[in-house]
Amino acid sequence: MFSFLKPATRPEPETRPLRLATGETVEITWVRDARARRLRLIVNDGVVRLTLPHAASIRLAEAFLFENRAWLAKQLLKRPRREHKPPFGRGSDLHLPLRGEALPLGWRDGRYARADLDGGAIILTLPESASDTQARRALKEFYLGQARADIGRWLPKYLPALPGTPTSLKLRALSSLWGSLSPNDDLSLDLSLVLGRPSAFEYVLVHELCHLIHRNHSRRFWREVEARWPQWRDERDYLHGEGLALKSELKRLIP
Questions:
Q1: Is residue 6, in this structure, part of any structural domain at all?
Q2: How many domains, in total, are found in the chain?
Q3: Tens-place pLDDT, residues 229-247
Q4: 169: nearest Cα among 134, 204, 133
Q5: 53-98 residue pLDDT tens
Q6: Which of 143, 165, 192 is the last residue of a domain?
Q7: Which pLDDT score, from 0 to 100, does residue 76 have?
Q8: How many CA atoms lie within 13 A of 98 on its CB side?
Q9: What is the DSSP string of 183-194?
Q10: E-strand spans in the chain?
Q11: Residue 74 contacts by C-beta under 8 Å, 6 or more apart in sequence?
Q12: For position 8, what pLDDT does the model report?
């Protein structure tokens, strides 16, 4: 998730087709990256990207893609239908995701657009003249507040055993990563994590905090992660399986 060395030059990506077991042919963008230590396959908004270390052979990459055809087909089935962006009109029968659950959306009249958690429901307060865009902005602020509250509960458990603290924290939609730690110790986390199960969100936080100790993904780094989160593999598998849907749902709901 993290690397701070920037290559002097980066080869232009190329696109190659791959035929899936379903019969569908997909275009895959191949990108060679000097920072990459292993082959990595990412699906985002229906776009498939294969990242390769410079030394990786084409034969190795093709074998890797062949072995991951079933996983890729499953991810592509989750491609969102952009035309089904839900309108936030009063009385809409909607359920919104939060911490792995689907909570009913309720409505109130008020002077300012805002969203709150109340009795197991998300309550959206709107002026009579509020637009759909205002409603979505209020929902974005709601998710930001919920994510900050979670992080605020978790951080005190981990900071005492770390050599330092993040200099800043940003929550935003990330295209492919779940989090990153910059060379200046600026911490960024994907806002869509608050939609999924809390244990996966906390794991990503732990993962990035451990980069304060080791700026790589070495064995020593993973030992630090495991010491703090022994079930990290379960969370990684969860994010591999559900991550695309979480990212797509966040993009569908907020601006």
A1: no
A2: 3
A3: 999 999 998 998 888 889 9
A4: 204
A5: 888 898 898 889 888 888 888 887 766 544 445 566 666 678 999 9
A6: 143
A7: 78
A8: 24
A9: TT-EEEEEGGGG
A10: 14-19, 25-32, 40-44, 47-52, 95-98, 101-109, 114-118, 121-126, 168-172, 179-181, 186-190
A11: none
A12: 42
The region of weakest confidence among 86-95, 107-116, 149-158, 161-170 is 86-95
CA nearest to 94, candidates 115, 72, 122: 122
Average pLDDT, stretch 160-167? 95
- How many CB atoms are located within 10 Å of the residue 83 CB? 5
Whole-angstrom distance, CA of residue 218 vs CA of residue 225: 11
Q: Which domain holds residue 211?
A: 151-253
Last residue of a domain, one of 41, 76, 111: 76
pLDDT value of position 248: 87
Residue linked to tokens 């909570």: 103
pLDDT given for residue 69 in this prediction: 85
Distances (CA, A) of 37 to 33, 217, 251: 9, 9, 30
* Entry field: residues in the chain: 255
Distances (CA, A) of 102 to 75, 82, 122, 125, 238: 21, 20, 10, 19, 17
Six token digits for residue 224: 């630090």
Element (H, E) at 239: helix 232-253
